[in-house]
Amino acid sequence: MSEWSEYKTLLHSLQEDILVTNKDGTIVKVSEATGKVYDVHADELLGRSVYDLEKEGLFTPLATPMVMESQERVTFVQTVPKKKKAACDRFTRF
Question: What is the per-residue burial (b if ≥16 Cβ within 10 Å, else e) of 50-75?
Answer without folding.
Answer: beebbeeebbeebbbebbeeeeeebe
